[in-house]
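Researcher: Next sequence.
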Amino acid sequence: MEGSIIPSEIPRCSECHSQLIRDVETGEWICPKCGKVAEKEMATGPEWRDFGDEESKKRDRVGAPITILIPDKGFPTVIRGSKSDARGRDLSPSVSEQMTRLAKIQQQAKNYPERSLYLAINILRRASNNLSLAEGAVEMAAKGLEEAITAGLAKGRKMEAVVGACIYEAGKISGNFRECKKIAQELGITKKEIQKTDRLIRGTLNKQVPLLSPEFLMPQFGERLEIFPTIVTLGIKIIRKIASEQSGRIMLSGKDPRSWAASGLYMACLISGNSRTQKEIADVIEITEVTLRNRCKDLARKIDITIEI
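Model: Next structure:
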């Protein structure tokens, strides 16, 4: 068979004349009887030794993983219109003009989805850094961007609005939620533009995005209010206890989840003795004090406790 070594071609040991065996990892020909290393080739394997599959996997080096955040997989071909070469030497006017023309042709040769995805990914990277999004949520948003751009939903719309809608959806799905208003401020657009684009993407692509839960909002609101994590956890337990029953789920549905998150935090503060005023919580979460009081009364009736609101 082509490429294989037939027995007559296998080298023999110069000491005991036994057939040598080849170590594939080190590239050496070794005598199995006397142990002599007859020939040594350049080693192409790693410079370490491993003693098991787990250790081998941990020490493997295969380069950076392929990610959707690098649309060209990290191997772009870029022609730049420059007046100097790689060594810094000046190009002649005719060559410089030719390079500028080639750079322009390369940009024009890119199709619409490719150009738009490059722009969208750059906006997403900048916004995700400032919003402190988790890597999983960023990749999920990038996947949503690719689907939306491929479907032609970014045509005639602000790219920032499409990026904002994908960040908003990815936050809901991954649990790394960011408020629509905060995303809009970061991208320099209005909240209404993100909501409108979000509805368009979900409707066109038939995306099933989970409804916003008060549990997602409470850690963020607790951080703004500088409430201890143990109190935030107590508030989440109150909401979960209500949501565990069908009647409780009916009560929670149809109302702003921010108001339920605010009422859960307020009641947790009252129970733990770390009291906060209704006005303080309502101002931070941007709801009215009347709404907060009504939600607190509903919670108190449901969990059967008596508190002065």
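Model: The mean pLDDT is 81. The two ends are 88 Å apart (CA to CA).
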